[in-house]
Amino acid sequence: MTQSPHVVVIGAGTLGMCTAYNLAKQGARVTVLDANAVASGSSGRSVGVIGTQFTDLFEIQLRQHSMRQFREFETFGLNINRIGYLRLARTSEQMDLFAQSVLMQQEAGFRSRLYQADQLKEIVPHISTEGLAGSIFGPDDGFIDPHELCMLLAEKVKEAGNVVRQFCKLEKVDRVASGYQLQTSKGLVECDIVVNAAGAWAPQVAELFGQTLHVKPERHEAITIQLDEPLSYTMPMVMDLVNGEGTGLNFRHEKPSELIAEVHKVTSLEPENPDHYNDQCDEASKIDLAELLLERVPELPGARLGRGWAGLYPMTHDKRPFVGPIDASEPSLITAAGAGGYGIQLSPVIGQLAADWVLQGEPQSFPEALQLKPTADRNISG
Fold it and tell me: pTM for the full model?
């Protein structure tokens, strides 16, 4: 490898731009290629939540690394709307897990606390507590605009003398002694190393390199909730899902008289074609979402459904991202994909780990993340 390797990052969403930023920061020469515009895929359709309210230590540690970089991105001008994150519990067993989470988060430097069911209206006055045991609440969590993040990082990457090429589709790959020759819709690009951060298109990119990547694009829908008058408080992110249990309903403040809601579950297990999928919210989904909202927040003032849209969650079989080489015999091709519905909040740490693999050959900044490597026993179809 040359002293300053030329790395091509394929994909200009949050994973790709965080990877490019971490590489550029460490002195690599970087070219980002995207078949469309920056943040035009899943990143641009995300509701942008970043949070730490998880019950698994490794998941909290991942977010510890991510939040450290998010604080750095704030110094660039990224706006983090710290409205808080409320994860609901339906059983005493889930509350026990939340109690353990509070301790793990405290060790990681995060603030959180438990609320019993009869205390929930202190945070969300309109909430119905029927069927709930309580919750865990992180006051410092919130949401970002993923497009804003990608554009900020693109500027940082370019300021360091690197290149971001939009509407530049990868068409053909040739391996050469020095690395790769990439034929694109805008000409030939030569490089030492490639990072596949193409999101829902990552399997197609892998195929051009002769590899098989099992990342399944799942279709998810979001919709705005219009209110007749502003709430007297800021609605935090509310999530009804604990380790796969719950309705999957989540909603949050967007504007004084507007919420955004989605369901963090899918009804269809069939993978979507990212080039040809329905990017609008189905009427049946709107009805299901409205019923879930009526159950949990039944008396919102004049609540009615607004515009809706659909995006794709790139999912792995075990629902954890792939970061590292698929094939040990080809360490110069790194995969950073499959972050599912947590791609925005994990993008900084995934970018950090992908840069580690490129420059160090292993995840040195967070050795425990070796478990995210797309090994044969993980890279399987769901």
Answer: 0.96
